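User: Please predict the structure of the protein below. I'd like the answer in structure-token form so I can feed it into my own downstream comparison script.

Assistant: Understood. Taking the following sequence of 375 residues as input:
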Amino acid sequence: MYSPEDRLIKILKANNVDFVASLPCDRIKFLLERVKKEFNHIPLTREEEGVGISAGIALAGKRPAMFVQSSGIGNMINALLSLTGFYELPLALFVSHRGIYKEGIAAQLPMGQRLPGILKGAGISYSTISTAEDIVVIEKKLPAVYKKNKMHAFLLSPAVFEGICDTVMLAPPACPVRGKSGEEDTVKLTPEFTRYEMLKTISSQLHCRVVVCNLGVPSKELYAIKHQPSNFYMLGSMGMAAPIGLGLSLATDKEVFVIDGDGSILMNPGTLATAAHFNRPNLTIFAVDNSSYGSTGEQPTLTGSCVDLAMLARGFGIGSVIKAASKRQLTGALKKQVSGLKFIHALALAGNAKAPNIPIQHLEVKRQVMEFIKS
């Protein structure tokens, strides 16, 4: 007789799920250990980054799923609505539903008990899996997630997995890959160009790459300088540029180029650790650092006072980190051959160009990018 874990994994495989991202939960720890062995697994630092990574995977035509705690849904709502839902990307969410059954941690109660109402209010469809027999609901509803490009949350009660071995032997952690220390961390460069001028300088190097561009003015500037069908223009979901790019790099062999910003990276810095873990050679993160929130009125970010993004990237384990400010440094950084992920810390002057709005509807942007990846 199949265990609940066996049945769930069998359903995932029957639906051709390609990648599974997760954060730990002791109520489903045995299931998660199985998932890690059976699928391409992505260990997350925060639930929200998993939404971006899953979006990139879906843009590449693959099928993502996520396993999180109910508390993690609170960290995901905006990205689920402004990215997954807005661009009509498929995502199956398997939620360890805490706070409803033999819960020993009082802090799990408020979110766990209100979770169905929160999902309903957000317009996210969900199913409650209260017993092992309810797993048949997953079998019935999961195919539509991928066929209709929808997201659906399966709320897994701890009762489903009660009695499963409580002493799971966890695999020892892998030795971390440390960023190399070097003189680059202490080099003091003076910004010479605005972001718009930088994008003009590097535009020829973007040809036929999948480009994920940070939201707001950066996307408008990129469209004005070099529109191509492989550009994914973000219209919301701040902090998701690097996660989307990472997901794309995992699901396709095409070159992926992320145009990110200091404010966006500071919002979701843990993604740099996840990116360092995979160290994909087809991924470049071009971090434009103008020490300001350019799209909201040039308010200062903390890179102007205390944060060095190059040192941050190295601290998270990225080995190839390059600082650049001049045209020669920018072009040299792009052309430099490295063995894995490349992080370019591009120091820029604050200021925005007067670029018009992007005239392409967001679903058309998605379609063009997906068609390019297929080609």
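That's the full token string. Confidence is low (pLDDT under 50) at residues 165-170.
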